[in-house]
Automatic annotation (TrEMBL):
<feature type="transmembrane region" description="Helical">
    <location>
        <begin position="278"/>
        <end position="297"/>
    </location>
</feature>
<keyword id="KW-1133">Transmembrane helix</keyword>
<dbReference type="InterPro" id="IPR011701">
    <property type="entry name" value="MFS"/>
</dbReference>
<dbReference type="InterPro" id="IPR036259">
    <property type="entry name" value="MFS_trans_sf"/>
</dbReference>
<feature type="transmembrane region" description="Helical">
    <location>
        <begin position="179"/>
        <end position="198"/>
    </location>
</feature>
<feature type="transmembrane region" description="Helical">
    <location>
        <begin position="254"/>
        <end position="271"/>
    </location>
</feature>
<feature type="transmembrane region" description="Helical">
    <location>
        <begin position="340"/>
        <end position="363"/>
    </location>
</feature>
<keyword id="KW-0472">Membrane</keyword>
<feature type="transmembrane region" description="Helical">
    <location>
        <begin position="369"/>
        <end position="388"/>
    </location>
</feature>
<dbReference type="Pfam" id="PF07690">
    <property type="entry name" value="MFS_1"/>
</dbReference>
<feature type="transmembrane region" description="Helical">
    <location>
        <begin position="50"/>
        <end position="71"/>
    </location>
</feature>
<protein>
    <submittedName>
        <fullName>Transporter</fullName>
    </submittedName>
</protein>
<feature type="transmembrane region" description="Helical">
    <location>
        <begin position="20"/>
        <end position="43"/>
    </location>
</feature>
<keyword id="KW-0812">Transmembrane</keyword>
<dbReference type="GO" id="GO:0022857">
    <property type="term" value="F:transmembrane transporter activity"/>
</dbReference>
<feature type="transmembrane region" description="Helical">
    <location>
        <begin position="303"/>
        <end position="328"/>
    </location>
</feature>
<feature type="transmembrane region" description="Helical">
    <location>
        <begin position="219"/>
        <end position="242"/>
    </location>
</feature>
Length: 411
């Protein structure tokens, strides 16, 4: 008799120590959904340019993409607590510097420099997934559920984060979202790293090949880049679309609906019995569903019509990410899991950075409604990459099964 969805998660959190590190993980992860919206609202409101706001956030994300893998290697080598806490403190100082630069009308280049300083923000999702992988290394079914829960947690934070950021920036002052996000990040990371019993042991220098050189990993990384572009462009375009309709404060709640759809789909997906990952099907569904916001925006010009379209579009996100993360864990060499997950998060951040910049440019040169074509195109690119990779792998397997000319018997 199949267990109910809640049973899988009840079994998951029966593992000693998991509830404690999850609490810190959620507090530290919530700001991940706040920083982007807070920065865009803060900079666009002060400088009057969504292109500048998108470029600044893209610069910070690109810097994080460069620093992230290096930081993950340090975590694998020295442990989570020894590396993540000082890295978080440095990132908090970067956020406060951005706040002050905007508040006191500093030159434009200082915005880029300050936001780039937040690149030392640890990949809290990767740190948490590494703990699950360590604790559940002998239970693939439970690890599938844990991966789904982590993705649902991502979506929950990206659902609540924009709402909280929009409320704080609207009800108090434009910099309030960034200030609150920095405080939550530091508090959550301190709580998370204090749970030493579930922390994976640090690894000495390993001779394992780098994940980037592992067969099947590079095309997977390229899919993450394209998927990140979906997320980055959708956020900037939706904020601009709501602003154009005179409902800037509604941008956060509307974006939260996309995350809500993904969160619900992720929890249901995690309760299912794990099967062979089929990333192509997930990416195909995401491409189709991402076209719904474009159709709603172009056909109606209404924020209320856009809202259910975003909810439906989000339902393909979590299954896609859970499937992709499962493939990452399978293809990453032992002892380099943090590095492998950091690399794919780096790919996501590069994609988000590119999507933010392209989405902001499309808003200004086309229109907010037409700019919804950017996330559709990005999802289609991810699908094409995965399909091409799968076809190439099939040809290689077929070639390997054919006998070589030397092995054929002579007449």
């Amino acid at each position: 008799m199949p267990q109910p969805p809640t049973g899988a998660y009840r079994r998951l959190f029966a593992v000693p120590g998991t509830r404690a590190f999850t609490a810190g993980n959620l507090v530290a992860r919530l700001p991940m959904g706040m920083f982007g919206v807070s920065a865009v609202v803060m900079i666009a409101g002060s400088r009057g340019s969504y292109a500048l706001a998108g470029a600044v956030t893209a610069t910070g994300l690109a810097a994080t993409a460069v620093v992230g893998p290096w930081l993950a290697r340090l975590v694998d080598r020295h442990g989570q607590a020894r590396v993540a806490v000082p890295a978080t403190v440095a990132a908090v100082f970067g956020s406060l510097a951005l706040l002050l630069c905007v508040r006191y009308d500093a030159p434009g280049w200082t915005l880029f420099a300050a936001y780039a300083a937040t690149a030392t923000t640890p990949n809290i999702g990767g740190l948490s997934r590494a703990r699950w992988a360590h604790l559940l290394r002998d239970d693939p079914g439970a690890l599938h559920t844990a991966n789904a829960f982590e993705q649902a947690a991502d979506e929950l934070c990206f659902m609540l984060g924009p709402v909280l950021a929009s409320f704080l920036t609207g009800a108090f002052f434009p910099e309030a979202g960034t200030l609150a996000g920095a405080a939550l990040l530091l508090a959550g990371m301190l709580l998370f790293t204090a749970q030493r019993s579930t922390e994976p042991p640090p690894r000495a220098l390993t001779r394992a090949v780098s994940p980037i050189r592992t067969p099947g990993f590079p095309p997977l990384l390229a899919c993450f880049v394209a998927t990140g572009a979906v997320f980055g462009s959708m956020e900037v375009v939706t904020i601009a679309y709501a602003d154009a309709l005179g409902h800037r404060s509604a941008a956060g709640p509307v974006l939260a609906l996309q995350a809500a759809g993904s969160c619900a789909a992720g929890l249901l997906y995690g309760a299912r019995k794990p099967a062979t990952p089929r990333l192509t099907r997930c990416l195909g569904a995401m491409t189709v569903l991402m076209s719904l916001p474009l159709l709603a925006a172009r056909a109606t010009g209404s924020l209320w019509a856009l809202a259910p379209a975003l909810l439906a579009a989000g339902m393909a996100t979590a299954p896609t990410m859970v499937t992709a993360m499962t493939l990452v864990q399978r293809r990453t060499p032992e002892g380099r899991l943090n590095e492998g997950m950091s690399l794919v998060v780096t790919g996501l951040l590069i994609g988000i950075a590119c999507g933010s910049a392209v989405g902001g440019s499309a808003v200004e040169h086309l229109s907010p409604a037409a700019a919804y074509a950017v996330p559709v195109a990005a999802a289609a690119v991810a699908l094409l990459i995965d399909s091409a990779s799968g076809a190439l792998s099939s040809r290689r397997r077929a070639a390997a099964l054919q006998p070589s000319p030397q092995a054929r018997p002579s007449r």
